[in-house]
Design goal:
The protein has 504 residues and is an alpha+beta fold. The protein has helices at 2-14, 28-33, 125-132, 141-153, 177-196, 249-255, 285-293, 310-315, 332-339, 355-374, 412-415, 425-448, 455-471, 499-502, and strands at 21-22, 35-36, 54-58, 88-92, 95-96, 118-121, 136-137, 156-157, 164-165, 204-206, 417-419, 475-480. The protein folds into two domains: 4-273 and 341-422, di-copper center containing domain from catechol oxidase; 423-464, no CATH class. Strands 2, 3, 4 and 5 form a four-stranded mixed sheet that branches. A three-stranded antiparallel sheet has the order 1-6-7, with helices on one face. The two termini are 43 Å apart. Bound molecules: 2-acetamido-2-deoxy-beta-D-glucopyranose (5 copies). Its EC number is 1.14.18.1. Pfam families: Tyrosinase. It is found in: Melanosome membrane.
């Protein structure tokens, strides 16, 4: 089974895959008018309003007060997202408009396929409106997500060189950390499905509890270590040729610019060779159990100082043995980033490494376990006074279409996906059987060269596969239920760029 997970993951990532500012809205006109309501070719009217296809609707943002951590107003494009860029968006048949693919042909990799739907923002609104004009750039589907993670976590530019506010992050250090990354993975998974045409694809997770080493760092999975340079990926892995973007945050801030998507060299990773003063190692089962026992989602200032906060402890700033915030060492989620000692250990650049996906899928499964155990009311998620970007009704930067933090404070069962290790045993047996019957049907003809085999053979193979699978506990796969509802869509942290610095 290990190899099946591998095949699914690697082949999906490398097959063509297919998100930020919709292409159609990356124009001077759209920037000046702050409207993204493209003319529908069907009837020549904006959003196809004449034919009743859609309407151009004003975006209303929440006016709930933010916490005191960010002492500015009107300096950063992510404030009151998405109003700096858009005050009106097309709404088609009840859901926010989703740009349709112009060209749906499949290329060879999510990393190499340019997004047909989205471009990335490479300058601030004020840079664009003063002189430069629109600052957008094409990007591959994989790198679109790398850029989004950079953009949500970057410091605020205060104008000029070396003038930034580091103590802000619209997706980390506060309550939205878990909902934001949940939407991020859903979007990412969806885009990989679209580009590969494989709508059964599910992001695999790596259960790192009590692991002593990076068990998924093999050439079959996310790449082994290079024998020539321990900081690099083995040349035998496809990931050795990947180039990173948005990995040099202190440099952009120093120059007063944003990451512009330029390639910046190979992926770096040297698991276990991290600075022991920053984190001990990978999280243990008992640390996960303690974290799950915390009944308050977030507490006090709802930032990195928060005590006895489930979110802060899972994120890694709360001590996973005492629950006290401002821990002297990073734990849980952040410890894994530090442990990887390379691209993963800088917040803004971390999504370059495919380990990010496997790691965050598992973090999301711990969030899911907490939601199931504590069954919080929706109102348990803060509506006001969370650090900027993190209140319940705030739209997540930089997603388009728009998602609210509080809407993702619900069980994955309601969204339509499940973790194999969290299923109740009965359901799990049925699902395994169905899933392996399906896999068996696909495998047998290939293995034996026979096109027709009875259900009996398939069932036998399924049982065998299920047995093998039960022996393998460390990797798993998220799975979608039949009734998956697509959330309204189509499609890291620190004072400088590192988790280390984040503790300040
Ligand atoms: C844009 O122009 C305004 C006023 O002319 C100025 O205050 C601001 O600093 C400029 N912004 C940039 C990024 O150059
Ligand atoms: C993009 O950024 C790189 C390095 O950060 C810089 O060398 C390059 O000139 C920039 N390109 C554009 C088009 O701004
Ligand atoms: C990697 O670990 C070394 C040795 O502990 C440390 O000096 C370095 O800062 C770490 N680098 C990254 C990117 O984590
Ligand atoms: C967290 O608890 C410590 C120890 O009791 C206390 O000193 C600190 O003020 C608390 N911090 C917050 C933010 O409540
Ligand atoms: C947080 O902890 C560090 C040491 O780990 C300490 O230097 C710093 O003063 C603490 N911050 C606050 C606000 O207590």
């Amino acid at each position: 089974m290990r190899s099946l997970v591998v095949v699914v993951f690697v082949s999906q990532l490398l097959k063509p895959a297919w998100q930020q500012i919709p292409r159609q809205c990356a124009t001077s006109e759209a920037l000046a008018s702050r409207q993204c309501c493209p003319v529908w070719s069907g009837d020549g009217s904006a959003c196809g309003a004449r034919s009743g296809r859609g309407i151009c609707q004003d975006v209303a943002v929440s006016e709930q007060p933010d916490g005191p951590q960010y002492p500015f107003n009107g300096v950063d494009d992510r404030e009151r997202w998405p109003l700096t860029f858009l005050t009106a968006l097309a709404v088609v048949s009840g859901t926010l408009w989703v740009p349709t693919a112009v060209n749906a042909h499949l290329a060879t990799s999510a990393k190499n396929t340019i997004s047909q739907d989205y471009v990335i923002i490479t300058g601030t609104y004020s840079q664009m409106s003063n002189s430069s004009g629109p600052m957008f750039r094409e990007v591959s589907i994989y790198d679109l997500f790398v850029w989004m993670h950079y953009y949500v976590s970057r410091p605020a530019l205060l104008g000029g060189e070396n003038n930034v506010w580091m103590q802000v992050d619209f997706g980390h250090w506060a309550p939205a950390f878990l909902p934001w990354h949940r939407v991020f993975l859903l979007r990412w998974e969806h885009e990989i499905r679209k580009v590969t045409g494989d709508f059964d694809f599910a992001i695999p997770y790596w259960d790192w509890r009590d692991a002593q080493e990076c068990e998924v760092c093999t050439n079959e999975l996310v790449g082994g270590q290079s024998p020539l340079n321990p900081n690099l990926i083995s040349p035998s892995s496809v990931f050795s040729s990947w180039k990173v973007i948005c990995s040099r945050e202190p440099e952009y801030s120093m120059r007063g610019v944003l990451c512009n998507g330029t390639e910046e060299g190979p992926l770096l990773r040297n698991p276990g060779k991290h600075d022991q003063n920053l984190a001990d190692g990978l999280p243990t089962s008992s640390e996960v159990d303690f974290t799950l026992s915390l009944s308050q989602y977030d507490t006090g200032p709802m930032d990195r100082m928060a005590n006895m906060s489930f979110r802060n402890t899972l994120e890694g700033f709360g001590n996973p043995r005492t629950g006290l915030g401002n821990s002297s060492k990073l734990g849980m989620h952040a410890a894994l980033h530090v442990f990887m000692n390379g691209t993963m250990s800088s917040v803004q650049g971390s999504a370059n490494d495919p380990v990010f996906l496997l790691h965050h899928a598992f973090v999301d499964s711990i969030y899911e376990q907490w939601l199931r155990r504590h069954q919080p009311e929706k109102s348990h998620y803060p509506t006001a006074n969370a650090p900027i970007g993190h209140n319940s009704e705030y739209y997540m930067a930089p997603f388009m279409p728009l998602y609210r933090n509080g809407d993702y404070f619900i069980s994955s069962k309601e969204i339509g996906y499940e973790y194999s290790y969290l299923q109740d045993p009965g359901q799990r047996f049925v699902d395994d059987l169905v899933s392996y019957l399906e896999e068996a049907r696909g495998l047998w003809p290939w293995l034996l060269g026979a096109a027709v085999l009875g259900a009996v053979c398939s069932a036998l193979l399924a049982v065998v596969l299920a047995k093998i699978r039960s022996l393998l506990s460390r990797q798993g796969k998220r799975r979608s239920s039949e009734s998956e509802k697509q959330p309204l869509i189509s499609s890291s942290e620190g004072s400088t760029d590192s988790y280390q610095a984040m503790m300040a």
